[in-house]
Amino acid sequence: MPRSWAKMAAPLAPLVLLLALGRPALSGAQATEGAAAAPHRRFEYKYSFKGPHLVQADGTVPFWVHTGNAIPSADQIRITTSLKSQKGSVWTKTKSIFEYWEVEVTFRVTGRGRIGADGLAIWFTEEQGLEGPVFGAADKWNGVGIFFDSFDNDGKKNNPGVIVVGNNGKLLYDHQNDGSTQALASCQRDFRNKPYPVRVKITYYQKTLTVLINNGFTPDKEDYEFCAKVEDMVLPSQGYFGISAATGGLADDHDVLSFLTFQLTEPGKEAPTPDAEIPQKDKDKYREEFEHFQQELDKKKEEFQREHPDVQGQPAADDAFETVSDRELRQIFEGQNRIHLEIKQLNRQLDMILDEQRKYVSAVTEEIAKRGAGFPGQQGQVSQQEIETVVKTQEEVIRQVKEIRSSVTDALRSISGAQHPGSAGVYETTQHFNDIKEHLHIVKRDIEHLVQRNTPSTEKQKCPELPPFPSCLSTVHFFIFVAVQTVLFIGYVMYRSQQEAAAKKFF
Ligand SMILES: [Ca+2]
Ligand SMILES: [Ca+2]
């Protein structure tokens, strides 16, 4: 991965995405395993939030503080609504003291426009950045920010994108260039208007920061792809976790569904006990809150069972029926999954063809080498075998190319099949299919590239040296064939002109 955001060539990103499609996604464990043995991972509830009971009775989020336009509700925190010039953020109330950590954040960025703004940021900083100009949080932070930047301020067509920016508390964020001059790592991902929530896993372990992304195309929660990595990164030993967002002239809804924090401990080291860190007052408050909630829940359960004795044990009405838009979305995803599989198959077949080509090239090379050494007695026999091999290989290649063509046709049929749903999801559909079109275009380009790459290598095998083959198609045979073709063609032309003349006579 290139370290500089500016160096990311715009057309490269879909290719990376495409390659990632064809390969199994990288899991968090795999990504960190390279460094050393897997760390001990412990969930830290004090630095986490998650639905369905995210907010307390008084409108606050347990262990977290929210600022600006952020609105917590039962199952998510809307950091900004899709109105102009909104800012909001959520921060942990206390500093974490973990040496290493991992956060899993689930969010949605949705907007009606093809372009949105400004974006969302995930933070680990020495102080809370409660308010400021950097995606709704303070500038000159000490720590790291992972920015999901929707709007392309510098016009380099590399947004939406993900960028990692470290700061020692002195640097001013270069907003006009989308932070490209300050990026430690980055990747280009479109995280807006995705069918499923986008998931990001940020791991800081043994001084390496890794960002993995599940970009919301599948319901598979573990389908993470590698995005960025920063090695030898020194972060404050204690800090706050936060998430912030902002809108500008253009505006998206920025919704965070969950923020889960895990403490990572190197094998053999002991993690500090969590209970010692909670003040008694807070403990009492949360216990009270929990008991109150539990009582409410029990009461409501009893009420519901009294009122609906017949629905006990049956699925809720919401689960049994799906809305029109849900159905459309489901159809689109099924179509997309099929395309995904087709592309995977295409990839496999391309690999097979390459393999065949390689075999063919090496066989020809071997043959030429043998001839160079000179065994005139065996020439006829060997070349016969050789030609048979070549013909077989060619037939195989043709068969596989046909298979590819049919799988591409299938993929196209899936696309047109999925395009049927009504008008409500048309915008998203069009956007997804534009993406797919782009990816198919890249597949085409790759194939052309492969062909170009293969052509000179076979030419290098010096086909002109082959004429000494006595049983190869001879010049005489070739000319006879051409002559027969020509005679047939002239005969046909004469026949047609006679027919036409006869027709004219008839009129
Ligand atoms: Ca930007
Ligand atoms: Ca940009």
Automatic annotation (TrEMBL):
Signal peptide location: 1-29
GO biological process entries: endoplasmic reticulum organization; endoplasmic reticulum to Golgi vesicle-mediated transport; gene expression; Golgi organization
Superkingdom field: Eukaryota
GO molecular function: D-mannose binding
A Gene Ontology cellular-component term: COPII-coated ER to Golgi transport vesicle
Membrane topology: Single-pass type I membrane protein
Keywords: Disulfide bond, Lectin, Membrane, Signal, Transmembrane, Transmembrane helix
Kinase among keywords: no
Domain L-type lectin-like: residue ranges: 41-264
Compartments where located: Endoplasmic reticulum-Golgi intermediate compartment membrane
Name the UniProt record assigns to this protein: Lectin, mannose binding 1
Lineage of the species this protein comes from: Eukaryota, Metazoa, Chordata, Craniata, Vertebrata
